[in-house]
Design a protein that fits this description.
This is Methionine gamma-lyase. GO terms for molecular function: carbon-sulfur lyase activity; pyridoxal phosphate binding. Keywords: Pyridoxal phosphate. It holds the Pfam family Cys_Met_Meta_PP. With 451 residues, the protein is of the alpha/beta class. It has two domains: 274 residues, Aspartate Aminotransferase, domain 2 (3-Layer(aba) Sandwich), CATH 3.40.640.10; 145 residues, Aspartate Aminotransferase, domain 1. The protein is 37% helix and 12% strand. It has a seven-stranded mixed sheet, with helices on both faces. The longest helix is centred in the C-terminal third of the chain and has 21 residues.
């Protein structure tokens, strides 16, 4: 794909002044430059703390919202230089907010710090980020191979939309089977390996380092959806070329915003914003600056939230397993990829904030969710995840309903699989008591003692 002439737009810290040099009296500009983006990556929380802090226009500790759709210039020839790629956001020159916006750019720097990538840019939704990346890396006639266990919307994009609209085909493989992954590569056509760090909804953990080695040996790009594991896993540090997110989930935390992000190299991000061929520019999946401001204020406490989500998930999973429920959670030692996840998870962040309980049938799954919501107020029956309240859904009939019966079987999605996004509201023991009461009522209401 064509790339913009200036390859530093996505992460540079320079700011424009009248003379193109810093004025000693320009205190706000000096402040912004002093707190430049971190050049090294450590713990995700440490990387976020080291990233450039954007102050407000009048010295506020929070950045100002740049809500303008279009931007003015001082001289007419400047505009043509901007469209030619000679001047850009690296020197505080902005054209139009569908391209680069200062407020969205600040959130993007935070996302790059979070994932340990050179750059990032944010989009209007997780699916906008995913589809833009695929359309950028894959052309008509090319091939993708992807995990059988994927979010239903992503599966539908690859199964139905891309073949029909773009002549792009996908082979779905069990990424646990590394030999099957090798065999799925179509020489000369396969351009991307796509999978989720922790799969939705089965909670399978991908062997990111080994999958990246297999793909890179064949010159194939690796795209990893890390929506289920921000802070917990850092795919780019394990070899992934691109990391995508639905920011709507854990990163937002409020179940009130739809947003996505693409994290990768500066060259990738800038080429995706290219004025002539960049999908994040041309297709228009633009993030609103007011949304970017809201999200930038939530990321600083993401580490605290993730630790509590993950802590409670482990406690509830451990206790439910002792009660005899069929529990799926990567933090349990009996999970098939527990040791794998432990080997590359970021220290002290746990094993994820989602737990699955396999009730075997949809009827029993629905009955459990009914008691959890309507009898004991443990959580809400709703899709999505990462909310401070616990959210419950039967994946096969909701977020994975785009998949047919055979596809769900291949992905390991049982008809009775209940996905629980563990919240952190209330005390842990208060919420456990509610869960226990729901299980007890369900047990007592049936003709047998089986959950």
């Amino acid at each position: 794909m064509a790339e913009t002439k200036n390859q530093t737009f996505a992460f540079s810290d320079k700011k424009r002044t009248d003379s193109d040099h810093l004025d000693g009296d320009n205190l706000i500009t000096v402040k912004k430059q002093m707190l430049s983006s971190a050049s090294t990556w450590e713990d995700p929380a440490a990387a976020l703390a080291a990233a450039r802090h954007e102050f407000g226009e009048h010295g506020g500790v929070n950045m100002s919202i740049e809500a303008s759709a279009t931007f003015t210039v001082m001289e007419p020839e400047t505009l043509s230089r901007m469209f030619a790629g000679e001047l850009g956001p690296d020197r505080d020159f902005f054209i139009y907010s569908r391209h680069f916006n200062p407020t969205v750019l600040n959130l993007s720097r935070q996302m790059a710090a979070l994932e340990g990538t050179e750059a990032a840019y944010c989009a209007s939704s997780g699916m906008a980020a995913i589809s833009s990346v695929l359309l950028h890396l894959v052309s008509s006639g090319d091939h993708v191979f992807a995990s059988t266990a994927l979010y239903g919307g992503t599966h539908a994009l690859m199964t139905h939309f891309l073949p029909r609209a773009c002549n792009i085909t996908t082979t779905f493989v069990d990424v646990d089977d590394l030999e099957a992954v090798r065999n799925a590569i179509v020489h000369g056509r396969t351009k991307v390996l796509y999978f989720e760090s922790i799969a939705n909804p089965t909670l399978k953990v991908a062997n990111i380092p080994e999958l990246c080695r297999i793909a890179h040996d064949k010159g194939i790009k690796v795209v990893v959806d890390n929506t289920f594991a921000p802070m917990v896993v850092s795919p780019a540090r394990l070899g992934a070329d691109v990391v995508v997110h639905s920011i709507s989930k854990f990163i937002s935390g409020g179940a009130d915003i739809i947003a996505g992000a693409v994290c990768g190299s500066a060259g990738l991000v800038n080429s995706m914003m290219d004025l002539q061929q960049g999908p994040l520019m041309i297709l228009g999946p633009t993030m609103n600056a007011k949304v970017a401001f809201e999200l930038s204020e939530r990321i600083p406490h993401l580490a605290l939230r993730m630790k509590e989500h993950c802590h409670r998930a482990l406690v509830f999973a451990t206790r439910m397993k002792k009660l005899g429920l069929k529990v799926i959670y990567p933090g349990l030692e009996n999970h098939p990829q527990h040791t794998l996840l432990k080997s590359f998870a970021n220290k002290d962040y746990g094993y994820g904030g989602l737990v699955c309980v396999d009730m075997e049938t949809e009827e029993r799954a629905n009955r459990l969710m009914h008691y959890l919501q309507n009898s004991t107020q443990f959580g809400f029956m709703a899709v999505s995840l990462g909310y401070y309240e616990t959210l419950l859904s039967c994946s096969g009939s909701s977020t994975s309903s785009e998949m047919n019966t055979q596809e769900k079987e291949l992905a390991g999605i049982s008809p009775g699989l209940v996905r629980i996004s563990v919240g952190y509201i209330g005390t842990l023991e208060q919420k456990w008591s509610q869960l226990e009461k729901a299980l007890s009522r369900m047990q007592n209401s049936g003709s047998s003692n089986k959950y």
